[in-house]
Amino acid sequence: MNVHRIEAQRWFHQAQADLTVVRTLRSGGHYAAACFYAQQAAEKALEAMLFSQGNRVVWGHSVRELVRQGARHEARLAEVAEEAALLDQFYIPTRYPNGLPSPAIPSETYTVAHAEAAQEAAERVLRTVEALLPQLTEPENHHEPDA
């Protein structure tokens, strides 16, 4: 199995797991955390795309920047640039009080509407990556063909 494909699969599967966490947090009323995990799911899915494109190391947390990097090889990624920009807003302020103007705190600032928008954006990013790289979710055939 190709080392780039293995790494891409690892990152994409974690992105899917993070998206499951988003749904759980959102249904439990933890909207700030749901927004953060939505950003994380999209970030990891895009990192999977970059690993599949042959990158050995992927740096950074900006979903928008990861879309830009991936779109150099796969132009269709640009279709999720708007979602990426939305999700970037949830990386720091959803977790740290100093990411918001005082006296606001993340756990009391983010609403169900924020969490829904974040989840929808992350789902679109994951669907786009999955459509571009269906091999990320398909098991590899480990058999050699019969001679």
Q: Largest sheet, described in full?
A: none
Sequence of secondary-structure elements: HHHHHH
Overall pLDDT confidence:
91
Q: Which CATH architecture is right?
A: Up-down Bundle
At CATH level 3, the topology is Four Helix Bundle (Hemerythrin (Met), subunit A)
Radius of gyration: 17 Å
Report the count of strand segments.
0
Percent of residues in helices: 55-70%
Task: Give the low-pLDDT segments.
Answer: 141-147
CATH evolutionary superfamily: Nucleotidyltransferases  domain 2
Can you put this structure into words, describing what you see?
The chain contains 6 helices and no strands. With 147 residues, the protein is mainly α. Helix 1 packs antiparallel against helix 2 and helix 2 (31-52) runs parallel beside helix 3 (63-71). The protein starts with a helix and ends in a 15-residue tail after the last helix.
